[in-house]
Specification:
By secondary structure, the chain is an alpha+beta fold. The protein contains 14 helices and eleven strands.
């Protein structure tokens, strides 16, 4: 698959599929951190020391076909413009950290973008599998399949007592980070989430924003992941997260029911106001767009709004980010120009949806 294809399409093919509990759990991700034996870890290595890593990936995996993921493509960071890197970050295919890395950075991608192997990020490899909805166990299985396939060709740094060795001590052991992206508007609106978060942290889990560590929780989207990897098996780590997420799904559903029962007019007014503003605005800042889209998504998932497919909200949440806006414009844009184009894009997309199905 060409670089143009990865950049051109806002929604990754895997996002177009339905998953369990997808009204609340947007996606599941399982990531494995691995390093090569005998090569200095990226956190302290220079570019010359790291250059053999993408070469090995290109020789053994790029252009080859995996039984689950199909043909894989290698994209090197030094082949991308700054805006193309930003787009891959906006699609969650690479991290902001890899985006700013040296010329030794790269990413190995499957055609449907459900597999992303970051090369020379914090570790030599970050194998991540992305699936729609609540599918942590499936994500672990697929990530392990890729891990096994790579280990047939490569020697990973491993210690009999400590497990897989990583740049950050918190990843030593299994090297596993499992996470889910959740849409929790009702828990935010009922002021319950701030009371729940401390309890989640005490369970060894962490809650972050939409783009991971250090990012803001825009559009009521939150990323939950495990913090520790040493001393627990992969299945135990995934099960701990699965249990907490299941409880959060139940609480969010209960909070939505509470809002619809006790504050029907207030909730409907908020949702339809957001729909009206998005349908007619001539400028829209990114933060407001995410919040308005969150309101509409809540309206779709609760049946208040009909005739709009929930998946277009996933699409718009990526399309309206700065990287994609500038890509489609074909030039660098000022903040004001991005706000104008964002509003236009949302209006046109909602109008297209109305023509296809109608909004009630």
């Amino acid at each position: 698959m060409t670089l143009h294809s990865f950049i051109q399409n806002a929604t990754s093919p895997w996002m177009k599929n339905e998953g369990p509990d997808s009204d609340i759990v947007i996606s599941s991700r399982v990531r494995l951190a691995r390093n090569l034996e005998g090569i200095t870890f990226p956190i302290i290595a220079n570019e010359e020391e790291l250059s053999p890593v993408p070469e090995k990936v290109e020789a053994h995996f790029a252009g080859h076909s995996h039984k689950r993921f199909g043909e894989l493509s290698l994209i090197k960071m030094n082949d991308l413009t700054d805006n193309e890197k930003r787009i891959l970050v906006e699609k969650h295919l690479i991290s902001p950290n890899l985006s700013g890395k040296s010329k030794a950075g790269a990413v190995l991608l499957s055609e449907d973008e459900s597999l992303s192997v970051m090369v020379n990020e914090e570790d030599h490899f970050r194998i991540q599998c992305l699936l729609p909805g609540f599918q942590l166990q499936e994500g672990l299985k697929y990530a392990n399949d890729m891990d096994d396939w790579m280990e047939e060709k490569l020697d990973f740094a491993y210690d009999q007592r400590r497990g897989y060795l990583t740049s950050c001590p918190t990843n030593v052991g299994t090297g596993l980070r499992s996470s889910v992206m959740m849409h929790l508007p009702a828990l935010v609106m009922t002021n319950q989430l701030n009371r729940i978060l401390p309890a989640i942290n005490q369970l060894g889990l962490v809650v972050r924003g939409i783009y991971g560590e250090g990012s803001e929780a825009l559009g009521n989207l939150f990323q939950l992941s495990n913090q520790t990897t040493l001393g627990e098996s992969e299945s135990e780590i995934v099960e701990d997260l699965r249990s907490v997420v299941s409880q959060l799904v139940e609480r969010e559903r209960a909070a939505r029911e509470q809002l619809l029962t006790q504050s029907t007019n207030i909730v409907e007014d908020r949702i339809y106001r957001s729909l009206g503003i998005l349908s007619y605005s001539r400028r829209m800042e990114s933060k407001e767009a995410m919040q308005r889209l969150s309101d509409i998504r809540l309206g779709i998932d609760t049946g208040i709004i009909k005739g709009i497919d929930a998946k277009i909200l996933n699409e718009l949440m990526v399309l309206t980010q700065p990287g994609f806006l500038q890509h489609y414009a074909g030039e660098a844009l000022t903040a004001e120009q991005r706000d104008q184009r964002r509003a236009t894009l949302i209006r046109e997309r909602l109008t297209l949806e109305e023509h296809d199905g109608g909004v009630e």
